[in-house]
Design brief:
The structure holds 3 protein chains of 3 kinds. Chain A has 11 helices and 2 strands; from the N terminus they run H-H-H-H-E-E-H-H-H-H-H-H-H. By secondary structure, chain A is mostly helical. Chain A has a two-stranded antiparallel ribbon. In chain A, helix 1 packs antiparallel against helix 8 and helix 5 crosses helix 6. Chain B has 2 domains: 208 residues, Response regulator (Rossmann fold), CATH 3.40.50.2300; 153 residues, Rossmann fold, CATH 3.40.50. Helix content of chain B is 43%, strand content 21%. Chain C has one domain. The chains are: A mainly alpha, B alpha/beta, C mainly alpha. Chains A and C meet through helix 4, helix 9 and helix 11 of A and helix 5, helix 10 and helix 12 of C.
């Protein structure tokens, strides 16, 4: 029981970081119709910015601010220089151009920071484990990540439903030409949305980098999972991204924790370990294929 | 048509480069990992190797170094190039067992010598051994076996075991269990390259183990130990030296202090060759040497000792000279078993802090004169 | 001979000239590189059939490349060990004969493509891109966990498979095999695209509704093209395994899918010799820039970006435009 509740928390925490990544991706796709593989690079950039600033100043808070602003700035820059030219192109060209951006970003980061991973030290206020009701010990920082994820989800919901920017975003999703005709500066709106998505990715990178490691290529596995999330949730839907992120996070954590022991009941331990581990890592892709075969437009997607 | 001229020009350039083989001396091809997450290991092997050549003043040993990016197919292609174009006599440098398995059998089949400064997969120690293959580091299981032996002497009865889901990971747990006599509280395989261990730490917490044996080389070990320290679980850790080299310890910091690990080498091993090596390495590169650096250094010295006795063109004589292992190893006593793998002592170390630097100090011997479990299967 | 045909022939001839030139100059490694280019180009020709002519942006073609490779590796390693590949439902012996392995690799790949294609083609657009990626990831993780065939470490088989009358270990002879297969695939692809089937396929890409109105089911067309495309990529995977005498899950990774796509785009989408030019330039850059800087992939990225933004027709598009001006 204790094991199960700890793994549920792990799944939630993992899901929240996926949500931070997926929110930006799905927003950019919903508003601009762009498929952006370089989103993982912005995640990596945020992590490096946080590691570098926190290392230089000794302040984790400054590191977080740096990650948000560096990723947002890089996002805006990339949007103006490259991404803008891709909106009218087909998906193939978008995939390719942003794949090219990954190469540039990754090798650039390797050039600046080297190949050896960087490691952050947790701020003392957030380090260590806390005792939860029910007697479960759980790392405080991971709880904080769950909190940040919920806060961002609420913030995004308020932003989209209550603010002027949100109205424009929704209008842009519905009918791009009309928004432009109404006198909204569409170029600035797009840059702002892209920078917002980038900032969230940067924040996710900084948080994950703090408990794991900051290294070149860290964005790629997360990027693929974020795509899995938005595809399951329905591309363009923030709500879908949130639900799907938690679904994927929980599936992954519980699958990894429970499958080997489940198989061990019917077969010999080492074989069960092998099959359980294999199936555990395939599980989310099976989930995604299943969802798409059942609902080709994702859980909350509009019909394509 | 223009593009074709450029292409032909390139061929001519490559062809000219290929003709320039040295008339005498030895040509060494070093395939090692110089980029990506595993770069630290390759850089240490290379630096240790070069340091030995420099100290010996060996100007007639030409070393060609190429980066395998830790990818087996890249390593195979580099080996093809070194054998076909550069016409090297000896290959060395590979860090990872899977790359060694992809390269070594084909290279020795083509009559090249291979000196392994790090990887020692069981297949190359047993039935797949070869007279031209020499391992200067260890057979892969050795340090894990030593960890198992140490667990017994420390009185552990219920170990939780953790390793990545790849062949070297399963070998690690097999090696540990070969000597460890207690019960298994759990046996978990993680994804290779995994960076989040929350799920596994949860399983350790729920397992009721009295010790945790883990084999997570490189960045995986750093992430695991940091997250383990944050989790509030305080079951003692044991592991092989791969998660406790100089680079890794500085990154893990306090979370590693006091952890016992097993190694065939440490910087405070008391012998003349080692003292000189540690001093020279620090003077040359401005950092403490790791065990990988010591292995690179020993590999080069083994090569030099053979070169002093025989010409590499006379394969039988050169091989006999290598078998004699007539060089001053940084590990003190060093000799080859019948399958060209080391027979050596394996020690227990503890992570300590010296000033601002995290490092290891020797605390005892785990296994004496250990060869390996596969030597009997080797028929040369 | 039309202008495009002349260009296609010239590109292919350039590759052959490089290999033979290198052989004459005594640079066997360059022959090996040309072989690698020919094999990767073959994979590109396969992908081009789905992507360039069929408009199916598959981000998971590495799965077929990898399956072709694994079939080769599995058969060759069983032949070396003298054990059967399987004894159920009937015994299949290992094989070290290229002519026996190739059809096997293509059949297995095609079967996988029928399943993956039939499920993926239920979706379109970004969903199709992502669901093909998901299937590739599934197989990738499966291969990593498949300990019997090396798992993450991959599978070595040391001796290149044999071809009657040839010494496959001689670089130039293995190049010749690869180049002939490449030429056959290009000819096949030219035939297919000009056939009734190919025209309908291209029409389905351009205007799905109209094709449906004329009584053709685009699903069947697209699935057929997807399977043909996969079988060619599987053959390329089999050759690539023989080139390295080694297969590993890296052949199945999404990076591989991306790279095959890069060959196609770099050379020119929907152009017969596009993948040949693309793969050739890719390997040339890898060798030239790789020597200049270990960060050569950043330069590759910039080049790729420039091609996508300013020369959507790829290298051959640029060349064709240049020729027209002359």
């Amino acid at each position: 029981m204790m094991l199960l509740s700890e793994q549920v928390l792990n799944g939630l925490q993992y899901g929240m970081t996926l949500f931070l990544m997926a929110a930006g991706l799905t927003l950019v796709f919903g508003v601009m119709g762009l498929i952006n593989l370089a989103h993982g690079s912005l995640y990596m950039l945020g992590a490096f910015a946080c590691a570098w600033v926190a290392g230089a100043t000794g302040s984790f808070a400054l590191g977080l601010i740096a990650s948000l602003s560096a990723a947002a700035a890089a996002g805006a820059l990339v949007e103006v220089v490259v991404i803008r030219r891709l909106y009218a192109r087909d998906h193939l060209e978008q995939v390719l151009a942003t794949f090219a951006l990954i190469l540039v970003f990754s090798e650039g980061a390797r050039w600046v920071f080297g190949s050896f991973p960087l490691y952050l030290t947790l701020p003392s206020a957030l380090s260590g484990a806390v005792m939860l009701p029910g007697g479960l010990q759980y790392p405080l920082f991971r709880l904080a990540i769950i909190g940040v994820g919920v806060a961002v989800a609420v913030g995004l919901w308020l932003l989209i439903s209550r603010t002027r920017l949100g109205i424009r975003i929704r209008a842009g999703e519905a009918d791009r030409e009309m928004v432009a005709a109404l006198g909204v500066d569409i170029a600035r709106l797009y840059t702002a949305v892209f920078a917002l998505g980038a900032a969230l990715a940067g924040l996710a990178g900084a948080l994950v980098g703090t408990i794991q490691s900051v290294q070149v290529g860290m964005g790629e596995p997360v990027l693929i999972l974020a795509f899995v999330v938005i595809v399951i949730g329905g591309i363009g839907s923030i709500k879908g991204a949130f639900v799907a992120a938690l679904l994927v996070g929980l599936t992954d954590a519980l699958g990894k924790a429970l499958l080997p022991s489940l198989f061990a009941r019917v077969m010999e331990v080492s074989a069960a370990n092998g099959i359980g581990t294999a199936l555990g890592s395939m599980l989310i892709y099976i989930l995604m294929a299943g969802v798409l075969i059942w609902r080709p437009q994702g859980l909350y997607g509009a019909r394509a | 048509m223009k593009s074709r001229h450029i292409l032909l020009g390139t061929i001519a350039a490559v062809a000219l480069g290929a003709g320039a083989a040295t008339a005498e001396g030895i040509k060494v091809g070093m395939i090692t990992t110089l980029s990506g997450g595993g770069a630290g290991l390759g850089i240490d092997v290379r630096d240790g190797f070069n340091l030995a050549l420099k100290r010996a003043g060996a100007t007639d040993v030409e070393v060609i170094v190429e980066d395998d990016q830790q990818k087996p197919d890249v390593a195979v292609q580099i080996a093809d190039k070194m054998i076909q174009s550069d016409q090297v006599d000896v290959l060395t440098g590979i860090i990872w067992s899977n790359l060694a398995m992809a390269v070594v059998p084909a290279a020795v089949a083509q009559g090249k010598f291979y000196l392994s400064p790090n990887a020692g997969p069981s297949a190359l120690a047993g039935a797949g051994c070869n007279q031209n293959y020499f391992n200067v580091a260890w057979q892969n299981d050795n340090l894990h076996e030593a960890a198992g032996a140490y667990a017994n002497s420390a009185g552990y009865k219920n170990s939780f075991m953790l390793a990545p889901n790849y062949p070297a990971g399963t070998d690690a747990i097999t090696g540990y269990k070969r000597f460890y006599e207690g019960a298994a509280a759990g046996e978990v395989y993680t994804q290779l390259g995994q960076t989040d261990y929350a799920v596994e730490i949860g399983q350790i917490r729920a397992s009721g183990a009295d010790s945790v044996f883990f084999f997570l080389p490189g960045g995986m070990g750093i992430a695991f130990m940091k997250q383990y320290a944050e989790s509030g679980v305080d079951i003692p850790l044991i592991g092989p030296a791969f998660s406790f080299d100089q680079n890794i310890l500085q990154a893990v910091g306090d979370a590693a202090l006091g952890v016992r690990n097993t190694s065939q080498w440490n910087k405070d091993l008391d012998n003349e060759a080692n003292t000189a090596f540690v001093e020279a390495f620090q003077a040359e590169y401005g950092r403490l040497p790791s065990l990988y650096a010591s292995q690179g250094y020993d590999t080069a010295n083994l090569l030099l000792s053979a070169k002093a006795k025989a010409d590499v063109a006379d394969q039988d004589a050169f091989r006999a000279a290598l078998e004699a292992a007539d060089f001053a190893s940084t590990r003190g006593e060093f000799r080859f078993g019948p399958n060209h793998h080391p027979i050596q002592d394996i020690y227990v170390r503890e992570v300590v802090k010296e000033g601002d630097i995290y490092t290891n100090k020797l605390v005892g011997v785990a296994l004496e004169d250990r060869g390996d479990a596969y030597a009997e299967e080797c028929k040369m | 001979m039309g202008r495009d045909a002349a260009l296609n022939t010239a590109v292919f001839a350039a590759l052959v000239a490089v290999a033979f030139g290198a052989h004459v100059y005594g640079a066997p490694y360059v022959v090996t590189l040309a072989t690698k280019a020919a094999i990767l180009a073959l994979a590109g020709v396969g992908l081009n059939l789905a992507l360039g002519y069929g408009g199916m942006v598959s981000f998971g073609h590495a799965v077929f490349f990898g399956i072709g490779g694994y079939v080769t590796g599995i058969f060759a390693s069983h032949a070396a060990a003298g054990t059967p590949v399987t004894t159920f439902p009937f015994t299949i012996a290992g094989s070290a004969e290229m002519l026996g392995i190739w059809p096997m690799a293509m059949v297995v790949t095609a079967l996988a493509a029928v399943v993956i294609g039939a499920l993926s083609l239920r979706t379109t657009g970004v969903y199709f891109i992502m669901v093909t990626l998901a299937f590739a990831q599934m197989v990738y993780y499966f291969a990593i966990s498949w300990r019997a065939y090396g798992g993450e470490d991959g599978l070595s088989f040391y001796v290149r498979n044999s071809f009657p009358g040839l010494n496959t270990f001689a670089p130039l002879q293995f190049f010749a095999i690869s180049a002939v297969l490449l030429a056959m695939a290009m000819a096949f692809s030219a035939l297919v695209t000009r056939s009734r089937f190919g025209l309908a396929l291209q029409a389905a890409r351009a205007n799905r509704q109209r094709v449906m109105a004329s009584g053709i089911r685009p699903f069947a067309l697209q699935l057929t093209a997807f399977v043909l495309s996969a079988a060619i990529v599987g053959l390329a995977g089999a050759l690539y395994a023989d080139l390295n005498r080694f297969v590993s899950p890296a052949m199945l990774s999404w990076h591989m899918s991306g790279e095959i796509m890069v060959f196609v785009i770099l050379g020119g989408v929907g152009r017969l010799a596009g993948p040949v030019a693309g793969a050739g330039v890719f390997i040339l850059l890898e060798q030239l820039l790789g020597g200049v800087s270990e960060y050569w992939q950043a330069l590759l990225g910039l080049l790729l970006l420039a091609i996508v933004l300013y020369a959507p027709g790829g290298i051959l598009g640029l060349l064709a435009r240049g020729m027209r001006r002359v």
